[in-house]
């Protein structure tokens, strides 16, 4: 045997797993296809790495089995993440909505925490190692990888597949975990890009494009969920945190409802304006909340240049509907090139929620994004990856 375990993928889950394995006295070999470990950590949060969320609970995770993530989150909590990084000199600073970033440091420092602990524990990280095949022989897994054009084999009694999801193929994302699962008859929950911008085409395209660069605090909802955050208009549709969040709950062909003035009632505001100065134009009311560009764009739907006193009842109703129940039907999403995570993945029914071991293949563990557990935007996905790394390490 070459090690106690082989970990495929030196991303968030694989690195945490290697480090935690070190704490329990296990030797691992990490095989990483890319030329450096933690590539996605390095680009996360715009290079600053939103490494956890103070308010993370199992409620912010999407999965066919919403209870599956609970055990991992009980074993490794947000406080564990915070104190782990604090031990290595990284203090957390909340940016917004519980999102924790390293104070005065960045994503590179987060990766360095892992690589330096791996060095201390003499955990081997082999980069440029593209795993192609896994063979299971009695009590062992033989992993075949290609490095510098040469095929190599290593062997261990335990194997961890932490090869991530499909987003950002140009950074080396692979479908390795999904391919392996399919080959061994494991069920896969349908995958799709998530936390992804949405596109608008057809007759509405120009209307959205003219607003490119404008952002607006909104409440987005569908029949499953609602989010209050900014949306961002772009040349091809909609982005911004609220759109990324709801994209994970959006299915092709569906509509999204947008409240363009959450926390206010436009009808009341118009009523008040009518009493104060009925000659005010509707645009003057709008301009208190929106950019001039947005108010001008609303002229396509509403009589913005009309004095508020002369608005008719049907017009007032239309204004209320348009502002509080603006409907958008995206054409599609920007795909894995722009998605932050993958929805779906290895069916959680195939795994033990307590250990993440594959029920049908003892000794084999899946961890991180390749599993059908997808977090919201805001540090939740790393919390899942760290927790998985910890849980699996206890079994090696
Ligand atoms: C632009 C962007 C920004 C993000 N920002 C945040 C953020 O701020 N906060 C947050 O919580 N989440 C963020 N995420 C999501 C987060 O990066 C992922 O959820 C997390 O990295 C998943 O961890 P993982 O270990 O499962 O996979 P990864 O971190 O993707 O690691 C998988 C590793 O496996 C390697 N690999 C794949 N196939 C093979 C193979 N055949 N052989 C060997 N190695 C292989 C890959 O090269 C990769 O290094 C962001 C994602 C993106 C794309």
From TrEMBL:
NCBIfam families referenced in this protein's UniProt entry, alphabetically: aminoacetone oxidase family FAD-binding enzyme
- Print the organism lineage: Bacteria, Pseudomonadati, Bacteroidota, Sphingobacteriia, Sphingobacteriales
Arranged from A to Z, the UniProt key words for this protein are: FAD, Flavoprotein
This chain belongs to the protein called Aminoacetone oxidase family FAD-binding enzyme
Domain RsdA/BaiN/AoA(So)-like insert: from-to ranges: 193-341
Q: Which residues does the UniProt record annotate as the domain RsdA/BaiN/AoA(So)-like Rossmann fold-like?
A: 4-394
Q: Which cofactor does it need?
A: FAD
Instruction: Please indicate which superkingdom the organism of origin belongs to.
Output: Bacteria
- Species of origin reads Pedobacter psychroterrae
């Amino acid at each position: 045997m070459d090690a106690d375990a082989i970990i495929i993928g030196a991303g968030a889950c694989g690195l945490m797993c290697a480090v935690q394995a070190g704490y329990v006295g296990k030797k691992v070999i990490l095989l990483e296809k890319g030329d450096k470990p933690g590539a996605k950590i390095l680009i996360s949060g715009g290079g600053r790495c939103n490494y956890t969320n103070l308010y993370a609970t199992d409620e912010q995770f999407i999965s066919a089995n919403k209870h599956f993530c609970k055990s991992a989150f009980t074993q490794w909590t947000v406080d564990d993440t915070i104190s782990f990084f604090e031990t290595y000199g990284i203090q957390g600073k909340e940016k917004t909505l519980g999102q924790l970033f390293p104070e005065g440091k960045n994503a590179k420092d987060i990766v360095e925490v892992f690589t330096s602990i791996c060095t201390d524990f003499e955990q081997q990280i082999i980069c440029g190692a593209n795993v192609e095949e896994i063979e299971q022989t009695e009590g062992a897994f033989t992993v075949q990888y290609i490095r510098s054009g040469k095929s190599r084999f290593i062997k261990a009694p335990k194997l961890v597949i932490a090869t991530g999801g499909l987003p950002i193929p140009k950074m080396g994302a692979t479908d390795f975990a999904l391919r392996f699962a399919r080959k061994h008859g494991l069920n896969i929950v349908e995958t799709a890009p998530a936390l992804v911008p949405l596109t608008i085409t057809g007759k509405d395209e120009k209307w959205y494009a003219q607003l490119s660069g404008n952002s607006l605090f909104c409440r987005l909802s569908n029949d499953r969920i609602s989010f209050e955050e900014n949306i961002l208009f772009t040349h091809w549709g909609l982005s911004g945190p609220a759109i990324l969040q709801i994209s994970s709950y959006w299915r092709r062909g569906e509509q999204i409802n947008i409240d363009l003035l959450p926390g206010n009632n436009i009808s009341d505001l118009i009523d008040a304006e009518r009493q104060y100065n009925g000659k005010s134009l509707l645009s003057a009311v709008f301009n208190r909340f929106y950019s001039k560009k947005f108010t001008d764009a609303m002229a396509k739907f509403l009589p913005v240049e009309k004095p508020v006193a002369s608005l008719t009842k049907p017009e007032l109703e239309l204004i209320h509907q348009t502002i509080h129940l603006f409907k958008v039907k995206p054409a599609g999403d920007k795909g894995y090139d722009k998605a932050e995570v993958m929805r779906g993945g290895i069916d959680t029914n195939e795994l033990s929620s307590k250990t993440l071991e594959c029920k049908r293949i003892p000794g084999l563990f899946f961890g991180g994004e390749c599993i059908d557990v997808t977090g919201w935007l805001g540090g939740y996905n790393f919390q899942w990856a760290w927790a998985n790394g910890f849980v699996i390490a206890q079994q090696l």
